[in-house]
Amino acid sequence: MAEARQAADFPPWLPSDGAQARLGCSMLQEIYLCSLRSWRRNLGRFWVRSTAGWGGQHHYLRGVVAAAVFASCLWGALIFTLHVALRLLLSYHGWLLESHGTMSSPTKTWLALVRIFSGRHPMLFSYQRSLPRQPVPSVQDTVCKYLESVRPVLSDEDFDWTAGMAQEFLKLQASLLQWYLWLKSWWASNYVTDWWEEFVYLRSRNSLMVNSNYYLMDFLYVTPTPLQAARAGNAVHALLLYRHRLTRQEIPPTMLMGMRPLCSAQYEKIFNTTRVPGLEKDSLCHLPDSRHVAVFHRGRFFRVGTHSPNGLLSPRALEQQFQRILDDPSPAYPHEEHLAALTAAPRGMWAQVRELVKARAAAALEAVEGAAFFVSLDSEPGGLTREDPAVSLDAYAHRLLAGHGHDRWYDKSFTLIVFSNGKLGLSMEHSWADCPISGHMWEFTLATECFHLGYSADGHCKGQPDPTLPWPERLQWDLPNQVYPSISLALRGAKTLAGNIDCHVFPFSHFGKSFIKHCHFSSDSFIQVALQLAYFRDRGHFCLTYESAMTRLFLEGRTETVRSCTKEACNFVKAMEDKEKTASQCLTLFRMAVDKHQTLLKAAMTGQGIDRHLFALYIVSQFLHLQSPFLAQVHSEQWKLSTSQIPVQQAHLFDVHNYPDYVSSGGGFGPADDDGYGVSYIFMGDDTVTFHIASKKSSTKTDSHRLGQHIEDALLDVAALFQARQHLKHRFGRAGEECLRYRQGFPSRKTAPTASTDL
């Protein structure tokens, strides 16, 4: 979600250890080949020694062993053949390019074969060895698509200059760089992912807060219990249940459109993972297991065990432990309260200070970094309030994204935030995975803690406390004096960064996914084209637009960029602003813009996008010390509008028709540019789209609330093209700045069901 800023800010040069990186790749290959040769030699030696010692009296036994070995080899060959066949089948993308709602005979045959070769009950990682590798697109096609994407935002003079650089690049450097990239694609699991993670994320020296992290919200209108400790107990227990299922691979693999498995590699580092700062490059430290969580409350750190000799602690036992922390009156130690601000500092600074902290407080640092995840028990309420829903919802988003600058451990894979009124939220570190992975976990957590685990009538977790449990361990930070100035500096920087972010969240309830589908459009493409209209009205011009699309159709795929500001979208926007254009003409242009966006989205998902290929070519040019003005120009582009849809992946966990309030309201991220916007959206049920908008208060060109109003107006104006505006106005009554129930104080229509048979 927040990757656009990271992509724009990664250094335009490689550090001095570039040669070491190349050597590391060679060594990894050599280690792999040596291991393979060693395995073959040891197996051969074992076979020779075993058979050589047997005499004629063991002739029959040798025959049995030989038959067993032959059968094993035959079985292995069969399994290998099945994997190869499945990989070839999964390389077919024709089904994705077909019109919505139709399926050709080749696709039906393909689907039947995939189901046959996949087995009846695939596990989470069942498809990993069968997923195809992400292809390297033609460099000529990529450059051509790039020029097409920038044409709407460049003047004729600037476009001619850019096209000239592109042609020079194709003549002089493209073939060489493409050859190296093609060579890497055969060696690596994915030709772009490892570089993307290293140079876009781990080598970034900026603060993680706002620049890289993103947040996920709780239910918008419902809080299952107002008891903070109880909500924390159920939520932590649900998260650990998810980890248990993840470890046992009991989570079914995600299937795109119910047909095509997606890569599951990113699930491996959800838990027990910390981003460790380095002077030039961070690293991800992932532990195989962790049996505690680190908890922060009123400036103090605690270690809370999550298991007993009998297994995972019950929700009621966890609630008891969290309540003990809340009732603990002891004050924070000097500078302990603001210690976590260091994780929001520039990475080089934190790397230096961390060595001092580790030298004097190694046990406490290890307890935090080695935890399953981080828990922040906030002393303030969060979420939507009846008294001032607009202000409270914006403040809720801001608290999840930035907090106070010192109450989140931004290095952890995620921080679970529990507010004093029982509201929840997540703050996610971005380098280890993308939003759909954390979103899948969050959907399970909310459904499990609310519907499956549930709460008693008095709001506590079900079950009985365990008085024999030892009290949570208070972590001791014996910090050296040299650390204090750094903590103060980091805190000032974090507060400045947090104070500069302008968050705005609003649920658009005039219509949603059902209306868009009734108009026979893709929901995502509908919103993306409307966003172009809203941005043009907000700023008076067009800009490069970043939309994140997944490439998990391929092994270890992560994301690709969809450049949503197309010529077709611009033509539609201009027509909408032209009073002489009729609704019919505008609607025709709208259909063309939506079709173009769908084409770009499908190309990105099938490995034929633009930006990851150009990024990888740029990295190769830096390794080879080749100066390319064209690639440098691509690298310097700024994304004024960064967008992302948060997918709902487990709709079966929520009964949105009978209990429409019990769905997550999505999440958001910071802007990719200091004068830009970050916009995310989620389709809540059939009739609501919730938008999350962020911008910088320091910018005189942006205003999150202003853009929000433009988005609402743009969506209604697009709906009017279908002669539906009067119907929408009559149904939802737009009488003010806020939407229906958001404006009326969000009364809950129904209570939660007592249990869910899907869990």
TrEMBL record:
Taking every annotated instance into account, which residue ranges of this chain make up the domain Choline/carnitine acyltransferase?
Answer: 135-712
Q: Where in the cell is it found?
A: Mitochondrion outer membrane
Topology relative to the lipid bilayer, per the entry, is: Multi-pass membrane protein
Chain segments annotated as transmembrane: 64-90
Annotated active site: 430 (proton acceptor)
Pfam families, from UniProt?
Carn_acyltransf, CPT_N
Main localization category: mitochondrion
Which ranges carry the Carnitine O-palmitoyltransferase N-terminal domain?
Answer: 1-47
Entry EC no(s) = 2.3.1.21
Transmembrane is among the record's keywords: yes
Reactions catalysed, semicolon-separated, are: (R)-carnitine + hexadecanoyl-CoA = O-hexadecanoyl-(R)-carnitine + CoA
Question: What is its biological role?
Answer: Catalyzes the transfer of the acyl group of long-chain fatty acid-CoA conjugates onto carnitine, an essential step for the mitochondrial uptake of long-chain fatty acids and their subsequent beta-oxidation in the mitochondrion.
- Protein's name in the database: Carnitine O-palmitoyltransferase 1, muscle isoform
Which species?
A: Dipodomys ordii (Ord's kangaroo rat)
